[in-house]
Design goal:
The chain has helices spanning 4-15, 43-55, 70-79, 88-97, 123-131, 175-192, and strands at 18-22, 33-36, 59-63, 83-84, 101-104, 135-141, 159-163. It is of the alpha/beta class. It has a single domain (4-192), classed as Glycerol-3-phosphate (1)-acyltransferase, CATH 3.40.1130. Strand 3 (59-63), helix 3 (70-79) and strand 4 (83-84) form a beta-alpha-beta unit.
Length: 193
C-alpha cells in the first residue's frame, strides 16, 4: 500500500481544493510515467497522492539536488521516493522495474507566469524509450492556487487536473527518436494544460 497513513490524512484535505479531475480512468494499472506541466509548489504532492489514492502505487518524482537539503527535507523526500536529478536515468529505470510510477516536470522549475514553459530536460524521452512504460500526459492548473511568487496558497482558488490517454513509444533510443518522443509528449501536455 502506497503511503498508507499519509494518503489517508492528506488526500481528503487536498481534495477540498480540487475543483475537477478529468480522465482518472486513463491511469494504467501497471507502472507508468506521468509527464506534467509545473505551476505550483504543490503539484508533485497532489499527483503523488492522486496516484496513491486511485492506483495504490508510489509515484516517485525527479527533483533538483538543492531540494535535498536540511534535516526536515532529507527524510521527507526519502519517504516519498524523490529521485535526485544526478544519476536519475538509472534510478528511474530501477523504480519502474520495482513496480513504482514516475513523475517528471520536463520544464524544470515552476512557471513564472502560469504559461507552459519551453522544455529544460529531455530525459523523459530517453526514459519513455528505455522503459517502454506508458507515458501519461497531465495538465495541472495550480498557478492561481499557489504560484512561485506567493508565500502561502490562495485557498479561494481551485485546482483542475486533466489526465490524458497513455502513450506508448517503441522506437530504439537515439538522439533523433528521443527528441521526437519528448516533442510528441510535450505537445499532448500543452493541450491539457
Amino acid at each position: 500500500m502506497a503511503y498508507p497513513i499519509s494518503k489517508i490524512i492528506f488526500w481528503p484535505i487536498l481534495w477540498t481544493f480540487i475543483k475537477k479531475i478529468e480522465g482518472i480512468d486513463n491511469l494504467p494499472n501497471k507502472p507508468f510515467i506521468i509527464a506534467a506541466n509545473h505551476q505550483s509548489y504543490i503539484d508533485g504532492i497532489i499527483l503523488m497522492f492522486l496516484v496513491a489514492w486511485y492506483k495504490d502505487k508510489q509515484l516517485c518524482f525527479f527533483t533538483t539536488n538543492e531540494k535535498f537539503t536540511g534535516p526536515l527535507w532529507d527524510p521527507l523526500f526519502e519517504h516519498f521516493g524523490a529521485i535526485r536529478v544526478n544519476g536519475s536515468l538509472k534510478k528511474g529505470l530501477r523504480a519502474i522495474r520495482q513496480g513504482k510510477c514516475l513523475g517528471i516536470f520536463p520544464e524544470g522549475g515552476r512557471t513564472p507566469d502560469g504559461k507552459v514553459q519551453p522544455l529544460e530536460h529531455t530525459g523523459l524521452g530517453a526514459l519513455a524509450l528505455l522503459t517502454k512504460a506508458p507515458i501519461v500526459p497531465v495538465g495541472i492548473q495550480t498557478y492561481k492556487f499557489w504560484n512561485r511568487h506567493e508565500l502561502m496558497p490562495n485557498f479561494k482558488k481551485n485546482i483542475v487536473i486533466k489526465i490524458g490517454k497513455p502513450m506508448k513509444f517503441t522506437a530504439k533510443p537515439t538522439k533523433k527518436t528521443i527528441r521526437e518522443t519528448i516533442k510528441t509528449i510535450w505537445s499532448e501536455v500543452k493541450k491539457l494544460a
